[in-house]
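P.,

For your records, the input lines for the assembly:
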Amino acid sequence: MEIKIKVENLTFYYGNFKALDNISIDIEDRKITALIGPSGCGKSTFIRTLNRMNDLIAGTKVEGTILLDGKDIMKNEIDAVELRKRVGLVFQKPNPFPKSIYENVVYGPKRHGIKNKAQLDEIVEKSLQGAALWDEVKDKLHGSALALSGGQQQRLCIARCLAMQPEVLLMDEPTSALDPIATMKIEELFETLKKNYAIVIVTHSMQQAGRISDNTGFFLNGELVEFGQTDILFTKPRDKRTEDYITGRFG
Amino acid sequence: MEVRTEQNIYKQKKSRNIRIRKAKNIIFYSIILGATGFGILVLGLLLYQILKTGLAWLSIDFIMNMPSRFPQKAGIKSALAGSIWVISLTALFSFPLGVGTALYLEEYSQKGTWLNKLLQLNISNLAGVPSIVYGMLGLAVFVKMLQFERSILSGALTLTLLILPVIIVASQEAIRSVPETLKQGSFALGVTKWQTITGVVLPYALPGILTGSILAISRAMGEAAPLIMVGAAGYVAFLPSSPLDSFTVLPIQIFNWTSRPQEEFKNIAAAGIIVLMALLLFANGAAVMLRNKYQNRMD
Amino acid sequence: MREHFLKELEILKMMFLQMGEKVQEVICKAVESLKEQNLEKARWAIQLDDEVDKLEREIENKCMSLIALQQPIAKDLRRIGAILKGITDMERIGDYGVNIAKITLSIGNEKLIKPLIDIPKMATIIETMLQNSIESFMKEDIHMAKKTAEIDEAVDHLYKDIYEELHNILSQNPMGANQATSLLLVARYLERIADHTVNICERTIFMVTGDRVEIN
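Structure tokens returned:
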């Protein structure tokens, strides 16, 4: 078991509101970690601290440490821009840029200084293949990304992340806007992606967490109630609140 | 049981209610149709009047001749050239200034601070200031203080001030309409703020920015009052060759002709108006095409 | 589609097969130990059954995990249901094996009251049945399952023959009563094993078709 991200005593405030309370969690490399919990429990806020996307929101405050390969990302040992390159984020709603498929994939690499056409072409092919989208779009790379279906758009967004050759993939409810077939395709994709990346996925669907993840964390009111191996958490949860939530007896 | 009584209530009300609602529908449709019709009618009459008086005087000579005391020989060449000079410079100044300010206000400045609010209030206010006031400002600052004299540069700078608030507000609207998710998507790839602005924000906002700018520049093209203040001449018999030359523009030339006693000059003025309108139409058309090109690229 | 789940299901089926093979071995060793009066073999059979029990728990856990995490439906659900019930049958079969081995131990080196003919014959049939029932489950072959279940009738006949034979011995030779009762129990165990095997076959048919069938 190799730990990619080690979070210790993380507390997070929006203004005076404590959104995360003393979270400690180990994210394993080449494993899928799922975070579940009711709306507003802090799971999305949590994964956005992992690549410091919350920096973009005014009036937030973070305490505690987040170690990526042992380096503290909060103390500017890693620059935020560099960090986001290494820790990619895929959003809830597919958000491809209103550009061609090709331009979407090379958007990041180009801005990180890769100009060579052949190299960019290679990145596009590899990333789209990595996101299991290549076969569907290889003939229309220069067509608009917005013409793709929702599921394809989301896979394009994953490809866009892969193009940066990240080490960690964060997914914020990546399938909540998709139909079941598209969801299944993306879930399958995770199976292959986890061979190379540490994946953290926030999901509303407990079933999804069960199907795809190795470890699961249950958040409630900004607190990490329980964290452990998925099969154990789903068959023998330690905490009563976890049991109530996953069995649908919540509230 | 309850459900049934509720249904009955609607049944009683149904016929009368629907008739009234439908009547209201028709009344409001008529009112707005009338409002639109009024505008079109007046515009049509005006256009008809101008075309009737001016079209006969419109010729290549009219466009190629310098102004003259004799209506038969009078032309619009210098005013046309002046207008093109002034507007090009105005566009050149106002576009980057306006878009830059809008970007600062929307993307960089701290929202909600008193400075920001003050700026915002002033910009909206300035959009409503009469153009003659800008003329006086131009006269004081550009002509006298900076000693640009009564030149194209002074005129263009004055018009720039005039339309800047409009461009800023329109650009702000356009920039604000860029979905937050796109910007976040860009940031999440480890892309810097400036790269996000050039890569996502501006391309997305450009059609909106262009629309606002086109309207503003069209307005500048028709302005006479502030330019009279900064001293555009009524009679220029040469073509300007640098931004520091003195100049006239179409609206002033037209204004000048309409104030002459001879009847023929009124006809020439009409012909001048046709040229001005054609120029406006051309400029707008070009800009709309440019905008559509960007919009298509987006979709 | 759902590669991960299919892989897990395949692993589960392999574990089920493994458990089946272990159970067969328990029965085989137990019956052999009785025939050869080999106490060592009997102890071995008893020990082997611990592994069967361990496998049963592992399979049960895995089934529950799969139900909790993968939400199987339709045939997938029936597959897991069939395995869950099937391991209970196999566990019982293993226990009967242990019982037979214990009888071997209790008879010890005492001379047998009669040469064993029908019991080994019955055991051979049952071993084939068990083998075939697991194979039909693995291959999801309902035809084979039906054929296997039908053999039960032959086992019942054999049991009746043995019963009558031992009954006669019992009434004629009270000295051998102890042994005769033990052997009667062995026959009874073997007959029960065949019934559990039939259960596995019926469950195979339910798994594949979704229909309940009652054979015999």
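Two observations worth noting. Residues 3-209 of chain C form a domain with the Methane Monooxygenase Hydroxylase; Chain G, domain 1 fold (CATH 1.20.58.220). The CA atoms of residues 19 and 116 of chain C lie 29 Å apart.

Regards
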